[in-house]
Amino acid sequence: MSETIVSLRDVWVQYRQRPVLEGVSLEVRRGEFLTIVGPNGAGKTTLIKVILGLVRPSRGEVLVFGKPPWTLGPERSRIGYVPQLENTDPNFPVKALDVVLMGRYGKLGLVRRPGKEDLEAALAAMERVGVRELAHEPLGHLSGGQRQRVFLARALATDPELLLLDEPTTGVDVQASESFYELLRRLQRQGVTIVMVSHDIGVVSRYVDKVACLNRRVVVHGKPEEVSASEALAEMYGCAALFFHHGKAPHMVVRLHELEGKN
Amino acid sequence: MMDFLHYAFMQRALIAGALIGAATGAIGVYVMLRGLSFIGAGIAHAAFGGVAIGTLAGIDPLASALVFSLAVALGIGYTTRRAAIREDVAVGILFAASMALGVFLLSFVPGYTQDLFGYLFGNILAVGPADLWFSLGLFLVVFGAIALFFKEFLYITFDPEMALVSGLPAGAIYGLLLSLIAFVIVLSIRVVGIILVSALLVAPAATAFQLTEDFRRLMFLSVLLGVGETLGGLVLSYYTNTPSGATIVLLSTALFFLAFLLSPRRRAVRVLPGR
Known about the structure:
- The complex is a heterodimer.
- By secondary structure, chain A is an alpha/beta fold.
- Chain A has a domain at about 1-65 and about 160-175 and about 190-265: P-loop containing nucleotide triphosphate hydrolases (Rossmann fold), CATH 3.40.50.
- Chain A has helices at about 45-50, 95-110, 115-130, 145-155, 175-190, 200-205, 225-230, 230-235; strands at about 5-15, 20-30, 35, 60-65, 80, 160-165, 195-200, 210-215, 220.
- In chain B, about 75% of the residues lie in helices and about 0% in strands.
- Residues about 270-275 of chain B have low confidence and may be disordered.
- The chains are: A alpha/beta, B mainly alpha.
- At the A-B interface, helix 2 of A face helix 7, helix 8 and helix 11 of B.
């Protein structure tokens, strides 16, 4: 059995007295590709932030590479993070390469400027995700899909072992999304452990090997077909019920549920 | 021609103006891209409270304005980092409160209204030789910090969350950036005044933004525009016999609209990046 990279045990998070995560437990092993699905307000982004060490749980234990993530220090460069596309201004006056280079900033530390080694690592990361030729394009000239790949390259610039993605295909067209997932699959085969948050349920069964269904409290955890089999469990906790049918066209039924809210 | 150069007060104003233009142009890039113009205006108004304290206490009003603005800038940074109060609410309250404090305190100083106007709208006749050294010092701090923390400022401006994730002390860097805004504002009080400085913190950068998509070029253009507009405005105000601060701000606004109309890419949908 391979090494555990991320482990959450009974994690509780509250924002202004409102519970966001209630007793979430989760485990990710080296080489796995886990997708966390769930409705808006389910706490998916919060869960990612907990793994990143940006949000500290009020209760429970979080271990990333065997340590609480906020104590990782320089080992942070072992984690790559692709935030939601809308977190950044698409017209910000930088070139694609400048964005990818930012992935090296943390490793460089304060004051030190990126050098030749960083430039090479950045270009290699861009090559790896197929945007090498866009290096000198202004960010504002890129499509949503291209920008998303540039952000993926930034996350890969330190050659991380764990890759976290938050709704990576929001605002990206269907074709670009599919090839983006193919790319993630390729990275997984190269040994990168991937945790992705998504509401893009249709895609889950085809590209990932484990699904967690989250609605604040619940994590139904397992292979896509197992999760769909536990329909009753999913429904009991108010998670959008998922039915995966492996066949020509995986389709799904998303049931309306009473819980509403925003991330 | 150029007879204004014979006057010592004009020489001082031009030197101070060049320093101010360069500093506001550079810091303005971050202010515009990160959407900090309201905070800038808030810090500027806080400076007025500082001026009043200095006047009443008998110390250099600019020195006390510097301390006071710095405290307010860091206070805003701290409050919002703790997420206790929303940033615009914190600024909105401080904004009026420090102005009120200034007016309140200055009412104890008899016959002060003349000088008051100078602090609010700038008065180039008040730029003394000592102010030049003060300005030069602030100028060096601002550009020294930008040179040192160029990549850090770029990161927190573009993507503050990722900057934090990277392990860089993003909170401290943001605090430093707010402090530099305070420095630039105090630096500008003599020439442009507290009320008008916020325009100078955005206009040159916004003008430059219409003309380039490269960050370094944007910075360079914004500094160039800042210096050109301040000096141009000063000279113009000399000939038209109009208040210098207002002339500078109107000139920089006119150039912004010109650049907006001529912008090669016509980013008409979003003139300024929102946040």
